[in-house]
Amino acid sequence: MFLVMKKLLFSFSLIFLLNSVFAQQSPTWIWYPGDFEIWLSNEMQNRRTERETYFPPFWRMDSHYVLVEFHKEFELSSPEEITIAAEGKYNVKVNGKMLPGMPSKVALNAGKQKINIKVYNQQTVPALFVEGKQVTTDKDWKVTFEDKEWIDETGKASSQSGTIYVNAGTWNFNSLDKKPSAFKLPTRLEQAVNSSKIGEGTLIDFGKNTFGFLTLHILKGNGKVGIYYGESKEEALDTNHGETLDVLNVNLPQAKDSTLVNSKGFQYVYVVPNGNVAFDKVSMQYEYLPVEDRGFFKSSDEQMNRIWEVSKYTMELTSREFYIDGIKRDRWIWSGDAYQSYAMNYYLGFDSETVKRTILALRGKEPTMTHINTIMDYTFYWFLSIYDYYQYSGDKEFIALIYPRMKTLMDFVMKRRNKDGLLEGLAGDWVFIDWAEGLSKKGEVSFEQLLFTRSLETMALCADILGQQEDKAAFTKEASLMRDKFMDYYWNQNKQAFVHSRVDGQQTDDVTRYTNMFAIFFDYLNPQQQAGVKKNVLLSDEVQKIMTPYMRFYELEALCVLGEQDEVFQQMKDYWGGMLQLGATTFWEEYNPAKSGIDHLSMYGRPYGKSLCHSWGASPIYLLGKYYLGVKPTSPGYQTYVVEPHLASMNWMEGKVPTPNGDINLHVTKNKVKIKADTGVGNLKLKSKKRPTSKQGTFLDIGDQMYELKIEPNRSYEIDYLAI
Amino acid sequence: MFLVMKKLLFSFSLIFLLNSVFAQQSPTWIWYPGDFEIWLSNEMQNRRTERETYFPPFWRMDSHYVLVEFHKEFELSSPEEITIAAEGKYNVKVNGKMLPGMPSKVALNAGKQKINIKVYNQQTVPALFVEGKQVTTDKDWKVTFEDKEWIDETGKASSQSGTIYVNAGTWNFNSLDKKPSAFKLPTRLEQAVNSSKIGEGTLIDFGKNTFGFLTLHILKGNGKVGIYYGESKEEALDTNHGETLDVLNVNLPQAKDSTLVNSKGFQYVYVVPNGNVAFDKVSMQYEYLPVEDRGFFKSSDEQMNRIWEVSKYTMELTSREFYIDGIKRDRWIWSGDAYQSYAMNYYLGFDSETVKRTILALRGKEPTMTHINTIMDYTFYWFLSIYDYYQYSGDKEFIALIYPRMKTLMDFVMKRRNKDGLLEGLAGDWVFIDWAEGLSKKGEVSFEQLLFTRSLETMALCADILGQQEDKAAFTKEASLMRDKFMDYYWNQNKQAFVHSRVDGQQTDDVTRYTNMFAIFFDYLNPQQQAGVKKNVLLSDEVQKIMTPYMRFYELEALCVLGEQDEVFQQMKDYWGGMLQLGATTFWEEYNPAKSGIDHLSMYGRPYGKSLCHSWGASPIYLLGKYYLGVKPTSPGYQTYVVEPHLASMNWMEGKVPTPNGDINLHVTKNKVKIKADTGVGNLKLKSKKRPTSKQGTFLDIGDQMYELKIEPNRSYEIDYLAI
């Protein structure tokens, strides 16, 4: 026995030794964190054209740092040769000694080796890739944009440079030839479903809204081709008013398949050749962000299944280099829109990289001179998005990276408070809230104060996560003061609701849904106040109705929080079902059931101004996952979570909710629940006419016909119960 | 008479009409002010290599704004077609209406025309060129990096964007094909003066220190060529230790003249071919900044003439895209070094564009996180340089452009004060002062407080120039408080001098020259204090001597201000003459007469570390112009000025001092002065044994054997006097 043990030990230590000496670390391209994201977002956001004209954003576009220093220390158990590649001009220091030229191979001795590499690149992001057996680039390299290594007259370097180093940024550029600057989304061939001659041209239908690069096959001749895109047939055929078009100059004596260089969002294309230009057929290269297929929902309600599928496809189309608003128009990163994409993503692909990329791109660089996207509310959604991301992902590293940028943005906000400590729209501040007729932005709007309060709470939470006790105390105090102020200034005892605003120090009479519904799911109200808001605002026909899926998202969430899932289910069927009945293949920027015909297509005073594939239209993914499958984390990264299924009018539903470490699978009928989770400790809550039973555990009666069961990971549970 | 008058009037108005309708405005490329300068300084400062290795600065490199909006309104008397060119992707709006595509020709109607053009460019600076009869780009176009033109749901644009527009930046890119991004300094052919075989290679001598691109003529064969540059013969031949080298890979079966891509500073080149590589001879392309030949000095003292000529050549070599420190090493823009180049320039080429470019490049972009070049004193020289520039040039437009950037830099400085309101080196602050052995940077150094005080005074002056009364009052108050503090804390009554520093709230015992000499020409001292400083510091051998021409500049200036021109003249001859005797063809970074042989070449612990062509070595230009020819402005842009010639040991001297509007010419002997000025009103001051006489005016006796005469522009004065 002793001998055998010894032999085993030897084997283990040999394996360990082999690992540390020979295991090839997987290298990846690194950069200053956020810089690739800013650069890529510039590339993406400056790509849009409208009717052939370049159409950039109206806020400041930032740049990456053009000169960056990377370094890391290694303890090498044996000598090795490393390969160095950089995007940009670079130099290399080993243990403080500069090497000649720009070496692509460097021989290192065993022992302590400190590698410093400086990279300069104006055009694309300074990036670095080092590959060796032991020395490789990874997120633990340190990086700075000013090393301040000055020397004295004897050549001695300063010992007090005060330089701040941060961990390097990375993504998935894991081989030398996969350079960050060459990043492109993948494409695949898609065929049209219909093609018909109309007038001088051909109308091609791809069967559903889509995104990518058109290919004209066997194109030849000499002349121009007008290519008119449409999210609707009407738009494609209205060559004078459609939002997007390309004009292709053709000079092809020999026929050739030609793919356009501009990507567009469209279902229809009307192609009108001039001169003797001819082509055979039209296909497209569908461009997409590869996202793992994880979240899932299916039920006995076919309409709801279709709503979920179309929502999923809407999310697929608007999830690109970053989460964008719509595929036809803007194609920019809007913080308020992205905030909803993040939420949907947690119940769909759980693609944390795209969440982080988008948050970093939105923040941009110092100095902070305007709100994010110039919109006050969008600044606050940015704060909120960070804590949400932490709650779903448990990614503390990202909080550490982003926290300094949160602080400087909050500084900016704090400095814009008026003498009463409230925020009103100053010159340059867009107070957006929602697209709604006649919505007042005057004075101190309650909605902005509410989001500000919540953002201060978020600061305190993030400070706490990072153990920054002083910050935590300061932000907690500010948040508490602001919350008291918010309640004092805007709660109206008579109306039992929050008013819309305060003008010249006085409450206005106006009540709108926004503040009231957010206060619900922020949990700011006592039961009596909740009941007031529910009756006097959420369920009242006298308060102006919401016309955008954007704010419907929050309205329905508030109702779900109040236990109105049955009502919400029907509203979802009506509202999103209404778009489906009108032939929607993706969900829209705005939907007003009272409109008809081509009136549905117009917005911003333009006949086809409305985006028919808008990320904020996809919210059923989130609502179904969180309030019907009923799954949500109760501690960061699903270490603990709750499952509280709600069938509403469905006979059964099944689904999968992704987490950072595997999925939570659920099948629910009116008398049976099956659940299996790959991770965390769950708390299954069932409302049942009798105590539910399961071979896998015993339910606790928590009163009011509610029962709960602890769900251990990697175990299949089957439960009998009786739905109410 | 009446008829004639009428006819004349008609002619005038016809000419006026023709001017306004047909006169072709001269268009120029425009950009966001400072952005071209920042971009070009990145290009220049990242060009240096040391022994083949890329060697960038250690402070933050900024970027231009990548997305910029230009606009201007015109009142067109007739329709016209304009040509548009941009560096970058762009769009064009005319009277608020977007034009399709990226038009290079646009037809405009008569009447009011507002042109908005947005340009995006990541790699080089977004720049715009518009050419028409009436509509052309010039410095009066407005430009911003965020137009914040958001719209409401009806498509109406916001009326309160709060956007700040500034005047466009320009230089001399005055034709469509002269693009800013293609900027290069011109070159011309220069031949070597000697060539000799030494060992395996050939040593080529260009006769004096120079700058440019080496050409190897009739180069052929296969192999490498080692090219070892040297400011001295010793450096070129020491292939293992010289500071700069190139290795050229040759693969030329057919002989070819080959010019190297890297520019270098050198007098000697040692060229060592390997393999079967051969070449005929070596020449160079001398690269230079074209500067008008204006300032001039000549005298009966041949050594001083040579000092002036070599100073001029030193300035020529170090005046490049920007004023740099030296031609061999650094080749970066250092604020303290540039401050002296500006001063010399006012007595040489009066090249205001290069002064402005350098000031803008040094400032970089927000956020301000470190001192300029990381050096505290260099931040202060930057402030001082702006008022000096105004005093010499009278350029108020530049003050308007730079003032906001001065304010934010001063904010940064103010926030770094300690509890006593003083500045000490915090982490990341380099307290430089001078290259001097054992110079203490501990605690609150008096020199930094003095420069800080002067910078606050500069802020007040600039605020006043712009009519910013509130700022003026605030900065005047801060300056006055700081000046009192400076006098209280650092003047030592016993020593009758300023001490070097304050440590732990106590004056130190140490007295150095820096603070004392600056206080002289800042005019902070009463006559008794002046006398104390002169005796106990400036003329004392017990106070540590200055070894750099950099601080010699100020030391000699202080002595000149104290009327010690005779002494200074001799010191110049000794110090700069000393370098000449050692064969200097340009003046050095540091010169210690006590050293000998190759010890003169070393610095920073490296055998050839010292720069032998350093801009701060050229200060005799300034001293001779200001304190011997004795010309200086007394109001901005030489509207008024003073001429107070001082011959010292010269029998005669003559010279020319440039101003923004022509020159001031002077010829001085011991009994005759000739003067003619193109501009301004001068005050000629002569010390004479008897009252000077002139046919052009009468001298006023101002006592102490001093006489003065008012000098009108464009008039030749000949004066008889008797020099003392």
From TrEMBL, chains A, B:
Transmembrane segments: none annotated. Residues 1-23 form the signal peptide. The keyword Transcription regulation does not apply. One of its GO terms (biological process) is carbohydrate metabolic process. SUPFAM superfamilies: Six-hairpin glycosidases. Residues 68-271 form the Alpha-rhamnosidase-like N-terminal domain. InterPro entries: 6-hairpin_glycosidase_sf, 6hp_glycosidase-like_sf, Bac_rhamnosid6H, Rhamnosid-like_N_bacteroidetes. Keywords: Signal. Residues 293-626 form the Alpha-L-rhamnosidase six-hairpin glycosidase domain. It holds the Pfam family Bac_rhamnosid6H. The keyword Glycosyltransferase does not apply. This is Alpha-L-rhamnosidase. It comes from Sphingobacterium lactis.
